[in-house]
Amino acid sequence: MEFQGLSTDQAPPIWVPLKFFITAPFFGVLFGLFVFFTPSELFLSRFSVESIIATHLLTIGFFGFVMVGALTQMLPVLAGAKIPKPKLLSTASHLLLVFGVLSFSIGFYINSSAILAVASALLGGGFFIILFGIAFAINGVKNLTPTIKGMRISVAFAMGIVVIGVYLLYGYVVKDIDATHLSIANIHSVWAIFGFAGILIVSVSFQVLPMFYVAPHFKSFCKKRVVNIIAFGLIFWMVLNLVGEFDFLAKFVISLFFFAFATTVWIKLNKRRRPISDVTIWYWRTSSISLAIGVLVWFFGELILDEYIVLASIFIGGGFIMSIMVGMLYKIIPFLVWFHLNASGYMSIPTINEMIDKRYLKVQFYLFIISILGFVASFFYLPLLKVFALCFIFSMVLLQYNIVLPVRLYVKTKKTKPDFDMSMFGDVR
């Protein structure tokens, strides 16, 4: 690993990001259970209540929690920027978001305007609390690296999609759903996938691939221009989408640069200086392939059949975004445990690569990939959906088990006496 330029002394308390990370698989399991027990034909329309519930269990419950956790951890470490009162903000945000996702799902399922109104307040409050804390920290950063600039743009899109999401949810509360509502919902989903998640992944990869995998650094044009071009493309697409014409021009720009990013990641993984393969490398490779296919389907698919947007969502949401997130959870959580224990004076602890049984990592990976491919197959033959939903559930349960193992090690070790007394060196988390 390479740790140049990292402010490890600015790392937040371990439970600030961990609480978000270990909650994410729980919502992945709920997503799988909901899909398994719901009649498959109800998912044929992406605007059906069932599709909305399933989508947000995954996008807010899994993607949102992982991304918020990653931002709270990486921003202080990469930029030396402290989020104000991180314990308080993260705890309040976490609780609001957990109950927000659950009330959102229940409110839609039983068609309760009152519960949906509560969900709107909980989700809006949960996201804004932590996002404003993150934005405040970013605003204080003097050395704006390409990764930090990308994070800033990603957070801006995140705030935008939260505002849009609250507006859309209000429409269901007052039962006012029209064509404009559906058009704005389309913007909400595209900005969430490409603006918040996509830009964040692209920006973080500038630092993560060289740091964790000793891969070649990205070229200057890629680090300085690509995120800005994608952001411009997304705003341009929004305007054209609202106008109702020529949105394919902006889609071409967005698709082109994400396709280029996918191929760049594949090439850099092939050129890494330590070509030792592990499950996290498999996840990065899966994500690059899925992104390349997904943006092609997104750009060309709707010209053939409007329903292909669902297929694009599976490749981009599941194959690209979720693959990277799962892979990075397997890197970040063991690293956090090792770093915080080591900083507390514990030396007789497993290495980062020893904290999770590699056999379980591989089984979880295979189950996950089979389920994603199965969801693609289910698009063409719907009866398969329940089978692969079950496969997805098992993969999420195993993911939960795998990432809890290092956390259990941390809790158990902290109950013992450290090898060295590090208290003389100041605040040790």
Explain what this protein looks like in three dimensions.
The protein is mainly α. It has helices spanning 15-37, 49-79, 86-109, 113-139, 146-173, 179-213, 220-243, 247-270, 279-304, 308-343, 358-380, 385-414.
Summarize the structure.
The chain is mainly α and about 425 residues long. The chain is built from twelve helices and no strands.
Structural class: mainly alpha
Strand content: under 5%
- Beginning-to-end CA distance, first to last residue: 22 Å
Gross morphology: globular
Structure annotation, total helices: 12
The SSE string, one letter per element, is: HHHHHHHHHHHH
Q: Any idea what the radius of gyration is?
A: 21 Å
Q: Considering DSSP H and I runs of 4 or more, what fraction of the residues is helical?
A: over 70%
Tell me, rounded to a whole number, the average pLDDT. 90
Number of strands: 0
Topology at a glance:
Blueprint: H1 15-37, H2 49-79, H3 86-109, H4 113-139, H5 146-173, H6 179-213, H7 220-243, H8 247-270, H9 279-304, H10 308-343, H11 358-380, H12 385-414
Helix pairs in contact: 1-2, 1-3, 1-12, 2-3, 2-4, 2-10, 3-4, 4-5, 5-6, 5-7, 6-7, 6-8, 6-10, 7-8, 8-9, 9-10, 9-11, 10-11, 10-12, 11-12
Any descriptors?
single chain; 429 residues; mainly alpha; 77% helix
